[in-house]
Amino acid sequence: MLRRPPPLHPGAPIAVVAPASAPRSRSTYEEGLARLRDRYDVRTAWHPGTERGYLAAPDAARAEALHQAFEDPEIRGILCVRGGYGCLRLLPRIDWTLARKHPTLLVGYSDVTALHLALYARADGTGLSGPVVTEWAQADAATLKSCQRWCEGSTVSDLTAQMDASVNVLVPGRASGPLLGGNLSVLTRLLGTPFAPSFEGALLVLEEVAEPPYRVDRMLAHLEHAGVLDAVSGVLLGTFTTGDLAPETPTLSLSRVFNDYFANRPYPVVTNVPYGHQLPRCSIPIGVPGQIHATSSAASLCAEPVVDA
Is the pTM of this model over 0.70? Predict the structure, then answer.
């Protein structure tokens, strides 16, 4: 049974944690934190000075910050400073019994994918793949609105509502199942570990940034060989960027890579979902039941509330 957290309304107490890397820019972080304080009661927040290389703090300190946020009965949201790298290192240290006992909305994306999927697998918890703190100062109104309506338990369930985007249908069809996924490279690193959820019957959501087509190809092959692409009931592909590609290097386009892996699937596959590392984008609830209804020309993407509204 899902352990949905209480809703996160304006003025509610939140904790700002850095489970992965520190912000690239201190001013960007401070600006985002200030904007968060305009909307929520920020009880605790990560402070510079604890960095350890590419990590925002040593593993024990980052895990303890999460534990304190889960344990505090007044905290209604845990908002992550940024992604980067480091969440995978924390998974064996996290008290999943505590997370299950005190469900709290965890908001973040990218490297936070590891926490979201492990939270679902080990504590039956839901999470929100949404903006990190360093984005709050620059995020557009539609991006923040998408996040806020999920936080507050909005009954408007269309994933792409209010987003100026048009999804593409690669394979039409209908499907339902729990929404699971996030960043492709982080997700593949969970396979074969005790922190990976079962993808049987799931709606798989994927996005990636600055990965050339051959690396995306490799990761999709990993998912296929691990049985994930046969187990799921539908696929939503968000924004994928390749970074700079050398013009003289042979390559396939990402669309051809997607066709190779998904065009003949027996379930619906929708691409160009406005979700990923680029703004504007929609937030995606993780772990909750969702539905895809895709025709040859349009798609409806819906999900249940991520909070116990």
Answer: yes
